[in-house]
Design brief:
Blueprint: E1 2-6, H1 16-24, H2 39-53, H3 57-64, H4 73-83, E2 85-93, H5 94-103, E3 108-116, E4 122-126, H6 132-142, E5 146-151, H7 157-162, E6 165-169, H8 173-178, E7 184-185, H9 188-199
Parallel strand pairs: 1-2, 1-5, 2-3, 5-6, 6-7
Antiparallel strand pairs: 3-4
Length: 200
């Protein structure tokens, strides 16, 4: 039995932090896991910038409310879920992901949570488990599942390499060059065919 594990941002929806950087006019917030492999370092950097500008959860959620899934993402997910179990494994936070899950038809997502003060300031973040993507894939395998994984960033490489089959999707030239062994796709049709092929 197969479970396909997908990243969320950059694969199914636009990058939340990039959208918020543009909405808030703070270019420093454009940094993502495509640029910084160390997620703790990246999040602490983001929280410092939010604090400096007096921005909190409410402002980010207002931006998220305007974000739609990438064109074709929901249709791709619907087709994929008709042939295999699918889990979205993301380093985002439930406070960010919920409105996007509604727009994607409520797929299963494993993500993290934010610590938020009564005034809306984001004071910290709680990771579900260490190295959540690769840890989750190994846990699914320990339950007898074969995993297929796809993502676009540095933090997806662990789950991609740990899986029976793994694919880069809409990734950067740098990540593709650094991982020439990984098939890389740009369209949902290509990715769907690759996943089907891996299940044969």
């Amino acid at each position: 039995m197969y479970i396909t594990c997908l990243d969320l941002e950059g694969v199914l929806v636009p990058e939340i932090w990039i959208a918020f950087a543009e909405a808030s006019g703070i270019p420093e917030l454009k940094l993502t896991t495509r640029d910084e492999p160390d997620y703790d370092k990246l999040m602490n950097y983001r929280l410092r910038i939010l604090k400096e500008h007096g921005l909190g959860l409410k402002e980010i959620q207002e931006t998220i409310a305007k974000i739609d899934p990438l064109p074709g993402a929901k249709e791709f997910l619907d087709k994929l879920r008709s042939i295999t179990q699918v889990v979205i494994i993301s380093d985002t936070f439930e406070q960010f992901a919920t409105p996007l899950m509604k727009k994607l038809g409520w797929p299963t997502i494993f993500c993290n949570s934010l610590t938020v003060a009564p005034d809306g300031e984001i004071t910290g973040f709680k990771m579900r488990v260490k190295n959540s993507k690769v840890t989750t894939v190994k846990a699914l395998q320990s339950m007898g599942y074969e995993t297929i994984a796809s993502g676009d960033s540095y933090n997806d490489l662990g789950m991609i390499n740990e899986s029976k089959a793994g694919f880069l999707f809409k990734s950067t030239d740098k990540i593709k060059q650094d991982n020439p062994n990984l098939p890389a796709y740009e369209t949902y049709d290509e990715l769907l065919e690759a996943i089907k092929g891996a299940m044969d």
